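**Archive record**
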Amino acid sequence: MNNFAEIKPLFKYDKVAYYSLAIDGNSKTLFEEFQIKHQQGKNKDKFHHIIRWLQTIGRRYGAQSRFFRNEAYSADTTALPPTGKDRNPAYKVDGINTSNDLRLYCLRANENVVFLFGGDIKTTAKAQDCPNVQSHFFLANALTYTIDKAFKDKEIKWIEDYTLIEVDDNYKLRFEL
């Protein structure tokens, strides 16, 4: 079955522009749905840890591959937060650095452009085996494949200095799950 996605800009920092996708006419992007679900309640500290990473990457470093974890079939699909509990900004519980099991799936298109998808709490070693993140994982892989193809086919274009993308106003990505 074909699904359609519209590319939406989210926010831009000095070094990174973040985008997300609204699926099948939904008014909210995948990232906005992730945000609504996790910014309050028991996962809010984990969510804010990921937001601090987005800000740090966007303002200070650029989207270097070392800040993204590879959890997917496609080498291009990644997740946040990065591996390692002692990396700053660190996630702390009772003042002690610990691992953050909340995952936000992404596509790091280059060091200046990142697509943010969805995610959830990961409870197993492999994302495809986790009942919480499995659907987010498979969707992120399908979208990554489709976005990569759209770049190759020049349906999504880089602006001259590769810091932003350009798409026609009515363009919709067509993908299969």
Remarks:
- Residues 2-176 form one domain.
- DSSP finds three helices and ten strands in the chain.
